[in-house]
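Hello Y.,

Per our agreement to keep a running log of every chain we model this quarter, I'm adding this entry. I've kept the format consistent with earlier entries: sequence first, then predicted structure.
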Amino acid sequence: MEVSLKAAKRHSGGFPRYDANGSLSAAVNKFLRENALMQSTEHSMYGLRHSFEDRLLAAGVDERIRADLMGHKLQCERYGAGAPLETTTAILRVVAF
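Predicted structure for the entry above:
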């Protein structure tokens, strides 16, 4: 997780290039294929996101935290700042292999 935190600090504004379009999935899938990191041709970034949310659901993670981690919007208004980093870190440790 330290690598992710370093990347987030280095790119605090996020990655606008990948906002609201399919270019992130395409870029990740291309990288995984070119580096022989896909288990099969059936695997993809899209499938990874679904597996991640399934694991969050199975672990009983709150809808707000799931939405935050997935980058989804909630149907209701958001209040507060969301879960602290320590909480999300503990959740991610539970759902990791």
